[in-house]
Amino acid sequence: MIFESLQQLSEGCKHTIEIVGDEVKIKDPEKLRNELIDTLIMTAVFSEGKDTKEAARWLIHRLASSLGILSASIQKLYEAMGRGEESGFTVPAINIRSLTYHTSQAAFKAAMKGEAGPVIFEIARSEIDYTLQRPAEYTAAVLAAAIKVGYKGPVFLQGDHFQVSAGRYAKDQGKELKAVKDLIWEAIEAGFYNIDIDTSTLVDLSQQTIADQQRLNYSLASGLTVLIRDLEPEGISISVGGEIGEVGGKNSTVEELAAFMKGYNEELKKAGPDLKGISKISVQTGTSHGGVPLPDGTVAKVKLDFDTLEKLSLVAIREYGLAGAVQHGASTLPSEAFDRFPAVRTAEVHLATGFQNMVYESQALPPALREAIYGYLKKEFPGEWKSGDSEEQFLYKTRKKGFGPFKRELWGLPETNLKQIMTELEQQFSFLFAKLGINGRQGLLKYIDLIEVVPKRPAALKQENR
Q1: Residue 180 neighbours by CB under 8 Å, 6+ apart
Q2: By CB neighbour count within 10 A (0-12 exposed, 13-18 middle, 19+ buried), where does 399 fall?
Q3: How far apart are CA 199 and CA 210, in angstroms?
Q4: What pLDDT, on the 0 to 100 scale, is given for residue 285?
């Protein structure tokens, strides 16, 4: 069910919740979890009425707050890791490209069963575009999932790869920087209190010195950090990440890390001596986003350079007080690789494509829907079919772009199909959380400040409830 008007929404909610000013009181908790939250999130994502969609998102946010579910920054935990007070785990950051409400439920369930420490839910700039999920929608889906499964506590929402495109920057620097700044503002407004700046695309390896290679990277990263500090809500210190090497490029070095941090810290001090800098640093150690598909559609095994990852993490911690290095492109690594991340002091590992693959390859996904998506990809993206690539390789590389156009069909799968997909995802999350050492680490959340930020109540909802 979807509410298509404010009147429908008001009528559908009145027996379960009550709006009192900027607060939402729950009259029937069981009905909220079993029925209303499903309708509210469907409305927040698919309603044709803009006012109704915004009202549903606001209600989800306020309901979550009333239940002790609050968007939070991981900054203070990462500071503790930088001081050497906490170690032995790696924080998973999950990019959800499809079925965000359902996938988040699976992740929360796995975390609750494992009494896990922090889990980050994130979405990259590029993913926002091709999955058709703006930050406010993503936030609503994750918070609604927490309500649905009975989770309480901090929810870590992260802007991943808020990236400056080298190509667009070369054509129009001002326009590209404005696009990234606007996205940062939009994400913070939506409750993203963790943001990874990615200006590593502008590293210029043709320059003679490493400092010159990193100059534009650290200068822009510093400027965007200042913007984030200006925009962050009172009492919240947003966790900011930097990046020294583009994923899929050459492996990062300690010298590059040192050059970036020296230049970044100097630039940041010019803006204000007390401004907090980045809390972690993303590096390249041999992975690529999505993995490398072979002609039969399987993914090539990647040899990740754990020695380099460990060196970079230890330098980041000991020399700069960061939580450590961040590993991208890890979800398609072999299972035996994941318990090595905590061992080499990796602060955070980003996981995306593996979950996408699970959805596409699940027996619960109707073959007709899968073929419809693949047919769409072949029709709409023929220019991305590289010479020499098999059909399987082309589909593997492009199928992430099928999630947005087919979002309604995926969310509308029969309940039995969705439950099977969620069960499969939950099992994988449980496996990864155990390997990454966050199970049994709820105590880590003691570092997290739970600060309520009350979003502005939609004007249309005020009128409806006079």
Answers
A1: 125, 162, 163, 164, 224
A2: buried
A3: 16
A4: 85
CA geometry: angle 403, 326, 78, nearest 5 deg: 110
Nearest residue to 266 (alpha-carbon basis) of 210, 227, 197, 219: 219
Residue 204: DSSP 8-state? -
Query: Whole-prediction pTM value?
Result: 0.94
d(CA 183, CA 172) in angstroms, rounded, equals 17
Neighbour count for residue 167 (Cβ, 10 Å): 8
Strands 23-26, 17-20: parallel, antiparallel or unpaired by DSSP? antiparallel
Tokens of 456: 């502005």
Kindly tell me if the per-residue pLDDT of 323 is higher than 80.
yes
Round to whole Å and give the CA distance between 122 and 106.
15
Cβ-count burial 204-213 (b if 16+ within 10 Å, e if not): eeeeeebbeb
What's residue 302's pLDDT? 60
Q: Which element (helix H / strand E) includes 435?
A: helix 415-435
DSSP string for residues in 25-70: EES-HHHIIIIIHHHHHHHHHH-S-HHHHHHHHHHHHHHHHHTTEE
Buried b / exposed e along 333-348 (16+ C-beta atoms within 10 A): beeebbebbbebbbbb
pLDDT score at 290: 44
By three-state DSSP, how is residue 441 classified?
A: coil
CB 176 within 8 A of CB 125: no
Q: Name the token pair of 309.
A: 């990852």
Amino acid symbol at 396: Y
Distances (CA, A) of 152 to 67, 143, 147, 243, 430: 7, 10, 8, 32, 18
Angle at 52 between CA 422 and CA 42, to 5 degrees: 15
Q: How far apart are CA 428 and CA 388, in angstroms?
A: 33
Which amino acid appears at position 249 of this protein? G
Contact 240, 273 (CB under 8 A): no
Task: Give pLDDT tens digits for 266-279.
Answer: 999 999 989 999 99
User: Is pLDDT at 423 greater than 50 in this prediction?
Assistant: yes
Reported as a single tens digit per residue, the pLDDT across 45-57 is: 999 999 999 999 9
- pLDDT reported for residue 297: 55
Rounded Cα–Cα distance for residues 51 and 458 (Å): 8
Q: What is the spatial distance between Cα 388 and Cα 397, in angstroms, rounded to a whole number?
A: 14
Using alpha carbons, list the distances in angstroms from residue 150 to 65, 109, 141.
13, 9, 14
DSSP letter (8 states) at residue 299: B
Which DSSP string corresponds to 115-139?
Answer: T----EEEEEHHHHHHTT--HHHHH
Supply 463's token pair: 């009128």
Q: Which residues contact 207 (CB under 8 A, 6 or more apart)?
A: 213, 215
